[in-house]
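Example record

The entry below shows one chain as it appears in the dataset: sequence first, then structure tokens.
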Amino acid sequence: MEAGEERYCRMELQYDGTGLHGWAKQSGLPTVEGLLEEAFLTVLGSAPPLRVAGRTDAGVHARKQVVSLKLPKSVDLHRLRASLNALTPPNIAVLSLTRAPRGFDARKDAVSRTYRYFLSTQEVVSPFWSRYCWRVAPGLDLERMQTAASLVIGRHELTAFTPPDTEHVFFERSIYRCRWRRLGKDLFFLEIEADAFLRHMVRILVGTMVEVGRRVRDIRDFQELLEGRPREEAGATAPARGLFLWDVKYRRPSGSSET
């Protein structure tokens, strides 16, 4: 297909990661990319390469995921969106499929991503929440966890918060916001915004902050982890089910950011 017959497009998705093996296509396993590719093959006879803002892991959800792709100019984007939604499972929703500026790259053009991680200290978690939060024992000191979260803001060497067997080469990340927020007496979430994230970064941060909240790790120790300490010195990796890719921001032509 000649370049002149194609146009750049932007697709926005939501998905429930329960039962999915993450974004990236894997042979014989249900993934978001793989299921979308099958749908594109059915409708168009071929599947365009998909560039994604955040490559979520198995079991992780997305409230807002952004994908860049190129499609033939002859394709009716509204009808294609409807077809994709009809051909993918109900836990994947294509919210929009629109034209994008030439050269748009969902990954490279993003200026920040925001994740939320949900925790519950309820004795019994509602079945409407159980797939979307990590249930931990009551008695967490949220004030200590808030102090730990505030230390994360800034630029840090975050080798302690990603597995050592990783494709990452650079481990410094700029964290713009990091704060715990309550949704009720026993339900709360960490909201964290950064330029980019390392694999398992949010989940290991949460697991380590829970140790701070349980008073089995002190604040100074947590702060030292932000200075390039090895992975084994940080806490456990929190379960995937509590994590959501919540938002992705892009630079507007005027210089401000859009969500």
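Notes for this example: The domain at 111-249 is CATH 3.30.70.660 (Alpha-Beta Plaits). The mean pLDDT is 94.
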